[in-house]
């Protein structure tokens, strides 16, 4: 049965792969994006999740076009990497405002319709960095670690209404961002990955789709690593 799906930050990379996975399965898929030209084939809504009014407008547009959101994938995120002593207040707070507070906004708004329907699936895209830590990424790691505590709290709040919320924590994924690294940087990263390769965006998308399926109806508050073993034990 076709569901109403929203993927934030669904215009490129992991988010686009997730949106395509749901569309290929026959779901109605909306994506949010902040800039540029969105990909064809989806209901594309321009939205900056740091702005509560834009979030509300986006949801109204999506609900009018394809009904209340039944599956939410909170993927939108930013980085502003810097060593601690050089990291400004804005570097820190802006990353948390998008990655953590922005996720709070979109989850809170989606939960309205899910509570009325007494069902729903929410998946948050975190990162192995949030579990393992990474020098120069204290802001990003804090925001992605915060998603775990947020998800587990909401799982306890909404579980009685048949709403699940889980976290997918990707490792290094073969996207435009990682392709911009030098060959030496890419090789150094792989020394810590037991599987010895980068993930494909579609591999992350497959885990998200599983957590959004009927087969995963009894999984909530979980953190699923898709990292080739990089964060083992964390």
TrEMBL record:
Function: Catalyzes the NADPH-dependent reduction of beta-ketoacyl-ACP substrates to beta-hydroxyacyl-ACP products, the first reductive step in the elongation cycle of fatty acid biosynthesis.
Domain Ketoreductase stretches: 3-176
The reaction(s) this protein catalyses: a (3R)-hydroxyacyl-[ACP] + NADP(+) = a 3-oxoacyl-[ACP] + NADPH + H(+)
UniProt GO MF annotations: 3-oxoacyl-[acyl-carrier-protein] reductase (NADPH) activity
Pathway of action: Lipid metabolism; fatty acid biosynthesis
Name of the protein in its database record: 3-oxoacyl-[acyl-carrier-protein] reductase
CDD domains assigned to the protein according to its UniProt record, in alphabetical order: BKR_SDR_c (cd05333)
Key words of the record: Fatty acid biosynthesis, Fatty acid metabolism, Lipid biosynthesis, Lipid metabolism, NADP, Oxidoreductase
Family the entry assigns: Belongs to the short-chain dehydrogenases/reductases (SDR) family.
Subunit and partners: Homotetramer.
Known EC number: 1.1.1.100
Pfam families, sorted: adh_short_C2
PROSITE patterns, alphabetized: ADH_SHORT
